Predict the structure.
Amino acid sequence: MNLVILSLFVFVASVFGVWVVRQLAMKYGWVVQPRSDRWHTKATALYGGVGFYPAFLLGVLVAFVMYFPNNLAASLIAENVWVKEGIAVLAGSLVMFILGGLDDLKQFSPVTKLLVQLIATSFAVAAGIVIPLTDVQIFNILMTYFWFVGIINAVNMLDNMDGLSSGIVFIAAGTIAILSGMVPHSNLLGIPIALSLMAALLGFWFYNRPPASIFMGDSGSLFIGYVLASLAIPNELNGYFGIVNPKPTELSLLALLIPATIVAMPIFDTTLVTITRKWRAQKASQGGRDHSSHRLLLLGFKEKQVLLVFYTMALLGGLVAVGMQHYTDYSLLLFSAFVVLMLLIGIYLTRTTAQKIIKSDMTPPTWTPFVNLLLHKWYFGMIMLDMVFVIACYYGAYLLRFDGVLSLQISESVVKTIPIVVVACLVAFFIAGIYRVQWYLISVPDISRYILGVTGGVILSLAIVVIVTRFEAGQSRGAYLIFGLLLFLVIVASRLSFRFFDHLLNTQLKKSQSGICTPVLIYGAGKGGKILLEEILSNPEFKEFCVTGFIDDDLGKRGNRVCGLPVKSLTDWADYVKEVTPEIWISSKSIPVNKVQNFKMRSEMSISIRRMILKLEPQLDVG
């Protein structure tokens, strides 16, 4: 109940604080005008972070009083870990808030901001908030500095659309609160800190959701990035997310995978933007309308739909993190599946929006053509993705073979042979010509290449493992058979994913336009009808048309569905035609047009009739 009251207090304070700042901003002209490299279309108030940071600060201070009502000073003197780490988070967030506020006013150089970020990170490191990745503490500290700087700037870059950054960090903070709350016998200080962050962001979100009336600015994005980076690392504030008991290797793995999953969306967007801007010889730090959210808008999504997609992915990441906390043996599989999904979405967004993104005016350096060639052909992305597939399927095969429980000997043997299996499979894939097949054009004849590549990869892997390790204890021939089956299914499914994304995207866009587009009934539920449907869905020239169903005279097809749409006879569509008056498009020259004309005359409706014709022009004289 105390935590609920605390959250309500912070929320009300945030709503009031942001309202005050917005009123002052509009009165004194503290607004940002629409710009070519930004997505907003009207003058919008600035400095939203100044409105909700005090609410967060008060919430954390109240939490200190709740947890240490009489002896806060004594606890600090006695070097209580909770107090030290909590004060470090508070002090670092204050430094980030001040830096962001001054940057909003004066625009510091990236070097200056980086220096202050490193200073703020030192507070957390000195208090003991360090990623427990290896037994080498200096390496862990170095990784922690990279982590803080990366997450702070990733959250800052994610603040590129109304309601996006505040909503994503809200979900991430909620995930941290849930993970911390599930630690047995816990009453952890990290929970009220996470709840205070959630409540403060929720108060701001009501003003920042589309269409936003105020932006948080760097004063908000830098401090919430710092707090998120602090709480996402397994430490005393969150009870190490309850992962202190697993084997050392599992602890190190989860100490990296769980935080990365919690903040997956900021990492995803920053990585996508950084890579694609490097392709175009642009600075990653410069503004632009090429973020993942902007790419969805370019594909036809509305702002609220984009937010829904991002929030859903963030929630999925939270569920994966909770799953890894509870099922440590399956943590690698859960993480791999989530990473694969993110990679596929990233590659799809990059490919489908590449021509719509504003091109750089800068002269590209000499290495850019090579990088463009390398990545434009998707070789790099395909190979990296296949490497994840191989590792996940290999590990998953052993889990299936041994009923989900791997002994220490088997685990060590699997980890030792993973590099061999990865290299062998990728070589076999290359030899089989898998990387010469275009993903979005995959067809039945291409399946033989995948069968050959996967079979060759499994055989080559097994042969090398036998030669190198003499098939030591912990290896299983049955696991290699399972590995081959899993790998084939996953590889083929990944290649078909682009078609799935196309269908999902086009279907969603057609649904959103259903009230304004012209309905179409396709006559012919065979191959021609399917070709016509795909053309309508994918061709921008037909964006004003929505297919609602199929007409077919074959009694065997009536009542069935083609691509999710119903198949009926012409007579069965009579009531629908009278109500909506759709167009009828004939998909084959073998269907006589007089049937439709007679139906049109009987129904006394002004139905437009079209016929699809595939025509090859005569040989052109180009001499």
Notes: The chain is about 65% helix and 5% strand. The two ends are 84 Å apart (CA to CA). Residues 359-368, 370-377 have pLDDT under 50 and may be disordered.
